[in-house]
Amino acid sequence: MDCKDIRFRLQELLDQTLSKQESVRVERHLQACASCLAHHRQLQALSRAIAALPDYSPSPAFTGGVLSALGLEEATCGLPQWAKWIIGSFCSLASCGAAAAILLALSRLSLWQAARGFELLSDPSQAAVLAKFYFLRSALMLGDCWQTLRAWGPIFGPETAHLPLESAAAAVLAGFFMAAVLRKTSLGAATAGWGTI
Amino acid sequence: MTRHEEDLGAVRRCLEHEPAAFRELVERYKNQIFSFILRLVANPSDAEDLAQETFIKAFKNLSSYDPGHAFITWLFKIAHNTTIDFMRAKKPGTVSIHDEENPVDLEEPGQPPEGALAAVLQAAFIEKLLVALPPLYKEILILRHKEGWDLKEISRILDIPEGTVKVRLFRARGMLQQELAVPGRGGGARA
User: Is the confidence at residue A72, as pLDDT, over 70?
Assistant: First the structure.
């Protein structure tokens, strides 16, 4: 085995693809040949040096960019995670309260208008129709509010994506609550149809 | 739980009901993929675009991933193909996957200058040496020594026979040693 052949074998030794028998022959040659030994050490040093090269990081927007391109996540405003969580929770609570308050106000308005209709028309069936009309109008207005709340979601990222859902749930609960209260009031006759609206 | 099992879990969740689990895989491998591509294209902006494209392609073809192999080798295969396509489109004819058919005659590398061996341990110097190599040779050195894959895995990533991997590695190391032997390279690093 001459030096030229050994140089090729040294690479195989480095890649651990040499048989045990051949490895022994190469190592024996290395003990006797300073030039091949230097070559071998150089290969090992290069291998170690490449292995020790650092990994670089892409920009902080990298992951968001990938997920956004795949439609898995909306582009976010770049706030830290904990800040988005706090803002998201605060907005959720505030929107629940706001939705409930809006529904309550609109329902009272409908009730008042229906009650007035009842007085003016002095006909319970017509007053019920009027109450349904006002409630429908209130529901449409609430729908507008919901659309506005939905637009908030992407501003703070996925942490606030649940916000419209919570608002809608709060509004429905408030609606049921109002219906239950109204049935027990003296104006129940005027709003008899509400529960079935 | 091994890294492979964690990857498989994330892939399964992605495919079944939780596509957002892909974030886990992106976070885990983005540095490795970005660094690999960056060393090939030597431009951070292009490298970032190509790395993003790699992950996007991976997600879209997740159902074709073979769980019998490591997720990261599959990812590297996509990164390799994406980068080679990009480089071919940018400079047609400069990147050939069949360089073995027209081998470059390598001179027997001389003895490195005194002290060069210590100098090669410096990362900046090695990066400089790698930049001087053609992308295919640079790539195979990174896959073998930086990522530590054996010839079989490299052959799977690059989609070439193991014999070709061996030959390419031999030439790549020879080129690196020649670069090291050039006066002002190995010797210059001492200054």
Answer: yes
- Is there a domain that residue A44 lies in? yes
pLDDT in tens, B66-83: 999 999 999 999 999 999
Which residue type does A191 have?
Answer: T
10-residue mean pLDDT series, chain B (191 residues): 89 86 93 95 94 96 93 96 92 50 44 52 81 92 95 95 94 88 52 31
Residues of A with CB under 8 A from a CB of B: 4, 7-8, 11-12, 15-17, 35, 38-39, 41-43, 45-59, 62-63, 65-67, 69-70, 72-73
Q: What CATH number labels B3-90?
A: 1.10.1740.10
A111-144 b/e with 16+ CB inside 10 Å = b?
bebbbebbeeeeeeeebbebbbebbeebbeebee
Residue B146 with chain A: CB contacts under 8 Å? 50-51, 53
Residues in chain B, how many? 191
- A91: containing domain: 81-196
